[in-house]
Every structure is written in structure tokens, then in C-alpha cells.
Write a structure and sequence with these properties.
Helices cover 48% and strands 12% of the residues. By secondary structure, it is of the alpha/beta class.
Length: 322
Amino acid sequence: MMKTIVERTSMVFNVFWTIIMAIPKRLLAPVRKYVQGGQFRKGFVQLEDKIVVITGGESSLEIAVDLARREAKIVLGVKDLAKGEKIIDEIIDRTGNTNVTVQELNLASFDSIKSFAEHFRENEKHLDILINSFEEIDSGQNEEGIEMTMLQNHYGHFLLTLLLLDVLRKSSPSRIVVKSSKLHRFSKKLPQESTGTSSCSGYFRSKLANVLFTRHLARKLSGTGVTVNCYHEGFTAQKILPESLTKKIDSSILEYFFKTPRSAAQTPIRLAVDPDLEGLSGKFFADCEEMEPSEVAKNATLAEWLWKQSFTVTGTKEEDFF
């Protein structure tokens, strides 16, 4: 008898507590929707026989999972092959698509980038989508005096894109998707014009470089069938907060303050697959919608300077690619 009373009381309490807890969540639902941002809903778009290269980053797993579900072949570039293999296993478990491979790619090393591109060209006949999604924040410099943040976020992707450009051209219509950030607005200068050495200022400059590169490359590729656009993915708890802290906080609470990795992946997914964006190039997107970049990011003279500087830093020549 007592057991029955306890069970019923417990059930009533749990129902009551659930109702109480649901009230603030319901009231805060618009907040969560705003924080999570635009969602790409066109699940019907398939990528059968398409090949996608993804360079990593916070949202790369969710990007890969979505595109793998659309039956694309995924080639994931990672620094750590052991971690990469675990990512591959998760992608296969979640999608059933076994056409997923991982290859070592260190965007701070031009030799690693060249090796990655050479291996890809030897093993694949076409490339339909290149997603430059990796980014890093590092206040240091390499042996040549290049800021590590700029090296990995811009120069590394610049070189990789050049080395895969002929494959992208042969595969047209094809797309290049570049990760930038709304935070590019905080930068008014580029490395050689600035004395700032903080990791934050270096990150802002690298994100400005991403937009300048995207817009300039779009002009260079006009009429080739290869488009290039950049995006702001938003801020995830995994990116902003220490891992030890995110593990202690309920994920449902974090969703009212930070984007989930899945929500962060929505804009690059749209740029990669949406048929409505066919032919659109040189644009900046956030929350799945086009957005105007800063005035500095639209400076064609600065873009030209960065373009020439990027060839110098990477030891390449424009005439070899255009």
C-alpha cells in the first residue's frame, strides 16, 4: 500500500515538475530559435556521385554527416589521423554511408598541404565541393615569421584551393565554401599593416582575409562555373567554453546561449548544396542568408594586395593557376 502511494506521489511530483520546468522553456523558445539561427530545410537535395573535401573545424562533423546523408563521398582533412578515424566511424554510424575517407592535412605546413592535394589528385577524378572550414587561433609565428593564425586560416587554405583549382574547374559547376566570421568587421588592417600581436586581433585579420580572398577569387573565376562564397557559422559552446565546463552544463541550457554544432553547420551546408544558389559567387552569408560584409572587406585594392602577398608567402605564381 505504502509503495503504491509513494509511486503515485512520485509520478504526480514528476508531472508537476515537468510542467513547471516547461513554462520558462516555452517562454524562452523564441530566444533559442534566434540563437540557433537559420536552418537549411532542403533535405531532398542529393549529392550522389559528388565528391566533397572538408578541411575540419568545429562544425565539420555535422557538415560531413549532412552531406554524407545526401550520398556524397566525403574526404576529410585532419591534423590528427587517429581522431580523424574516430570521426569517420561516427559519420558512418550516423549515416550508413561508408564512402568516407580521412587524410592528414596540417594547414600550418605547406608541405602537408601539397601532399594532401597530390594524394587527392592521384586518387580522385573530380571535386565538386571544397569546404575550407578549419580555423585556429594562435598568437605565435612560424619560423618564417608568419602569424600562425593567418597561416592556417588564410594562407593554408589559399594554397590548398589553388592546388585543387584545376580539378574544380574540370568538375564545374562546382563550389568553394570558405569559413569567415562576422568578427572580420573588427579588423581594419592586414598583418603587414598592423602592429597588433594579440591572438584576437590576429584572428580578426584572418577572417577579414577570408572575405577579401573570397571576393577576389570569385572575380578571377567568373565564367568558369566554379563559385566561391564565405560564411559566418556562429558561436558554439564547444568553441567558446572549455571542454570541462561544457560537459558539466546540460546541453539543453547551452542552446539558449550558443549554437549547437548542427546549427553552426547550416550555412555552409546551404552554400554547398542549395540549387537556388547556383551561379552565385563572391558573397558573405550568415544564418543561411546573404549579408553585407564590412566596407574594408569590399576594398578591391586591399584584396589585390592580399592576393599578391598570398602568392609570395606560399611560394607560388599566379600564372601557374590563371
